Amino acid sequence: MQPANSQATEANYDGLVGPTHSYSGLSSGNVASTSNRQAVSNPRDAALQGLDKMLRLADAGLVQGVLPPHFRPALSMARRLGFSGSDARVLEDVQAQAPYLLGSLTSASSMWTANAATVTPSADSSDGRVHFTPANLNAKFHRSFEHLTSGRALAATFRDERHFAHHEALPGVAEFGDEGAANHTRLCAEYGKPGVHFFVYGREGFNVDSPRPSRFHARQTLEASQAVARQHGLTAGQCVFALQNPAVIDAGVFHNDVIAVGNRQVLFYHEQAFHDETRCLNDLKLAYSRCASTGPAFTPIRVRSEAVSVEDAVSSYLFNSQLLSRDDDSMSLLVPVECERNPRVHQYLLKLVDDQSQPIREVIYADLTQSMLNGGGPACLRLRVVLTPDELAAANAACLIDHARHRTLSDWVKRHYRDRLSARDLADPELLKESQTALDELTTLLELGPIYDFQR
Question: Between residues 37 and 60, which one has the greater pLDDT?
Answer without folding.
Answer: 60
